[in-house]
Design brief:
The chain is an alpha+beta fold and 171 residues long. The protein is 16% helix and 38% strand. A hairpin with a 6-residue loop joins strand 4 and strand 5.
């Protein structure tokens, strides 16, 4: 796995402990940055507050994580040549957390912690005497969860850092 700092070093940049951080906000794209972009690794300012949306491993509904960005991009993972990933420090934690998606990746990174909350996978509660029953809105891993969330994001005013919502199957 290469990150921007490794690419700087490999391309003859400064020594490992003294490398200057490069960001995608620079107006000029240097040869070293171009190599990083082609490798699928992108740089953002360290400590940027982000919200990560991805599909749940249990029901396929969309879940939300908040934290500070460390790194994101695409890399080889198992049989997938271009699997999207993100590494971040969750809000209130000190250690890095990572998410990588292979089959039908659905990963969205937006700026800030004030991003909208995705809908719950549970539907309305139904009462029958002393019993309250709640069912999921859709069957497990139904595309309805992601379609509802896509509509929510389209209506909201969030700044998207990276969009890895692929609808076409394997990558």
């Amino acid at each position: 796995m290469f990150n921007v700092y490794d690419i700087l070093f490999l391309a003859g940049g400064k020594a490992p402990g003294k490398r200057k951080e490069k960001t995608m906000t620079d107006t000029k794209t240097t040869e070293i940055e171009r190599l990083g972009i082609e490798a699928g690794v992108f740089a953002a300012p360290a400590g940027t507050k982000i919200t990560v949306y991805t599909t749940s491993e249990f029901f396929g509904s969309v879940v939300k994580y908040e934290g500070k960005l460390v790194e994101y991009g695409r890399k080889k993972y198992a049989q997938y040549d271009s699997a999207p990933y993100v590494h971040f420090i969750p809000k209130g934690k000190r250690k890095t957390f990572g998410i990588i998606k292979g089959y039908k990746p659905y990963l969205l990174i937006v700026e800030g912690w004030d991003a909208p909350e995705p809908d719950s996978f549970l539907g309305e509660a139904k009462e029958s005497g002393d019993v309250v029953v709640r069912q999921s809105r859709y069957r497990s891993f139904n595309e309805g969860y992601t379609k509802d969330f896509d509509e929510l994001i389209a209506k909201s005013n969030v700044k998207i850092i990276a969009d890895f919502r692929e609808k076409g199957g394997v990558n």
